[in-house]
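User: structure tokens for this one?
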Amino acid sequence: MLSATVESVEAALNKMTLVSSQTNQLYAMPHSLYSGRARAYLIKQGISFEECSTGHERYKTEVLPEAKLPTIPTLVTMNGEVIRDGAAIIEHFEVRAGRPCQPKGARQGVVSALFDVIGSQGLLRPAMHYRWNFPEENAAFVRYHFLHSQRDAPGREEKTDYMMDRMRHAALIFGVTDNTRELIEALYLEFLEALNSHFEQYPYLLGWRPCIGDFGLLGPLHAHLGRDPYPANLMQRRAPRVWRWVERMNRPDQDAPEYFNAGDDFLADDTVPETLLAVLRVVAKDFMPETHASADFINQWLAKQRPEAGTPAVGRLAEAPGSATFSVDGQQISALAQPYRHFQLQRAKHLFSALNQRDQGAVTTLLESCGLGALLGVSLSRDIERAGNLERWSRHTGD
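Assistant:
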């Protein structure tokens, strides 16, 4: 009881020291994949913020105790609330503003939620591949960012080498190997071509302003694939419309002068254009088999381990289930089975469950036309809930 009281007092003191900022403070880094989602949302919604590096001492002493995990982005609001994770940061402001980036239509709403997951999970392999497997073009640029995210102190060079080596290893556990390289590149180029064709017609995924899916998709397409020298040059040459969208997503205005018939809202009548369905068909080629494989693997792990309700399911405090193997175009890929993929998918499932029967039928027909018909039926045996800045396992069924 005494220790709990001490922890409560310490937490209260930490929060008191944070209630001093005149603006929101976003702890992030330019080269961070997940930072791009939250940063763009704040820019587009006109929410004032100051971006800070995690190298600031204040992050370690005041922010991290509330954030629980040393991940970015992490936001400290003007009233001192600490919010870790880009999706949670966006949700915080969406709730308060009446969900301006959530399309009201059934089909558009689910598609937006799916692109949020595709960005945070479905493009990890090309993001890691194009950052780490082209050192001649990328190494100096990437090293600059890793180095200058820290204070100039003894051991900074060695710490930079350690951080970069860890991220190279992460690329391996996400499925980037010499054997999968050719497949990863082929799928990414096909994806770029399809997305470029879509942006020939519209400046954003669902029309004339960004939805939640735009912000999720931006993560890998900005930091890794749109800034690192080799993939950025590739995007500029092969998909200039995608490059423009990356620019557009980091500007406060609509930034769509090349669209002479531009509107100001999502497409009417819950329309999901054929050009966007073509993008989903490309994504489905590896997103579906990996989602099935990771769910099967995690469910087997859950049946054996039976983690206590409330224990972390995602991040360094969680026990990693391991890697799942799946096949894409006859090529085997082994990648870390990530519960966060399924945590993100829960939003799409909840949106779908809340629909009436007619709208559920319309969404199902759309997903089936893209090779994603079974996606919303793929589930973990335990839900993941978010509390205290951590994603946690829910109770066992029947408990």
